[in-house]
Amino acid sequence: MRKSLFGYGGTIKAIAKNFIKDGLWDIYDDKFSEISKDEFGNTLLPVSEFDPAKSSLEIPSPGIPPHHELIKKTRNLVSEYDYFYEIYKENLPFNIWISGTNGKTTTTKMTQHLLESKGSVMGGNVGIALANLDPHAKIWILETSSFTLHYTNHATPGIYVLLPITPDHLSWHGDMSEYEKAKLKPLASMSESSVAIVPEIYANTPTRAKVIAYKDESDLAKFCGVSVDDINFKTPFLLDALLALAVEKILFDRCDVALLNTFVIEANKLEEFNDKNGRIWVNDTKATNIDASIQAVKRYKDHFIHLILGGDDKGVDMTPLFEGLKSLRVKIYAIGSNSDKLMKLATKFGIPALKCDFLQNAVNEINKELKTSEIALLSPAAASLDQFKSYAERGDKFKEFIKSL
Fold it and tell me: Which residues are noted in the entry as ATP-binding (predicted)?
């Protein structure tokens, strides 16, 4: 029988390039209108061609939602994680999975920064597919999305790091309970020799793993035996830093704060810069959910904030964000496909707001009012694909518009 891959993004292309050598695999994607071949000789087919009776195994691209017609037809569905768990068996590198709503990427990169000298490699949702990772590495550090966790039933981590869970991807999962269920799923399959670092609210989730629960950064600092004053990162990156140190503490009984402090935060996350008049603008375009924006706003709570919000909110209720904004000195500049929704919430909570629709309009309007003591913050709490190719393009355009003022 033949084997099937669903979607033709980075995850599936990596499998197609590195692991399909027997000619028994077919690849299905909505963008294929006729049967063809890719550069590796794999068969590419329209979704309508999939016959579950002729498929012995199906691996989906993580972004394909459960309600997709391909998923509904499957009989032998496994995740990318499950596939490699089965291939490598006892030779699989030690797995560290990092998940949660906001901060996964930074925590993953900080952990890799600390453990690279110990033979670790990183991948998963951070941009490097498992099929491209070194199977002989000592440690795999995997940024793990809720999509992947939803489809994973056999693979399990040696250490599971869970950041706080707040509403996100609800249009994919269906509702908040399903999203939360996916994030907590690894705990059920972990062994007595594994460790889970989780927010205190999930401390009693059934698991055989040793649980390290934290309420805030101070709990993690205590576990690590370090002082937060010695760490160079501020909120929200302080939590990410301490979680990375906690992993190092578990594995090697040490916390190299000096090495951690050499880590450089990636672009597009609370990236501060000045315009020609010396005023502060902040590019936080990677804040594609409400929790990320809430954390960004907390960072500047002592300033008046000119806040650019909006984009594709993925079906998430933005009310919690506005509840946090109502006590601050802030003005909202609404852009993107959910701008009308944002304006209604601003009215409801009595927060000054201006409907700008487009990012350049928002920058121009802020330019008229921004004082040197204030902050202009792009932290959209929404995805970018309604108006941009990616969150990175949104950030680049933001900086271009400011430079041209």
Answer: 100-106
Q: Which of 32-36, 101-105, 199-203 has the lowest mean pLDDT?
A: 101-105
Can you tell me the distance from the alpha carbon of 137 to that of 13, in angstroms, rounded to the nearest whole number? 22
184 CB neighbour count, 10 Å cutoff: 20
CA distances from 142 to 107, 156, 224, 317, 368 (A): 10, 12, 22, 29, 44
**pLDDT digit string, tens, across residues 37-94:** 887 778 899 999 999 999 999 999 988 999 999 999 999 999 999 999 998 888 999 9
Q: Which of 171, 212, 167 minimizes the C-alpha distance to 65?
A: 171
The answer to whether the CB of 65 falls within 8 A of the CB of 151 is: no
Q: Radius of gyration of the chain from Cα atoms? A: 22
SS3 of 215-278: the string is CCHHHHHHHHCCCHHHCCCCCCHHHHHHHHHHHHHHHHCCCCHHHHCCCCCCCCCCEEEECCCC
Q: Which residues are annotated as a binding site?
A: 100-106
The reported pLDDT for the residue numbered 175 is 84
Is 169 in a helix, a strand, or coil? coil
Residue list for the binding site for ATP: 100-106
Distance CA 179, CA 168 (A): 8
Q: Number of helices and strands (H, E) in the chain?
A: 15, 17
CA distance 253 to 246: 9
* DSSP reduced 3-state for 362: helix
What would the two tokens of residue 242 be? 């301490």
N- to C-terminal Cα separation, the chain: 62
Nearest to 302 by CA among 335, 318, 280: 280
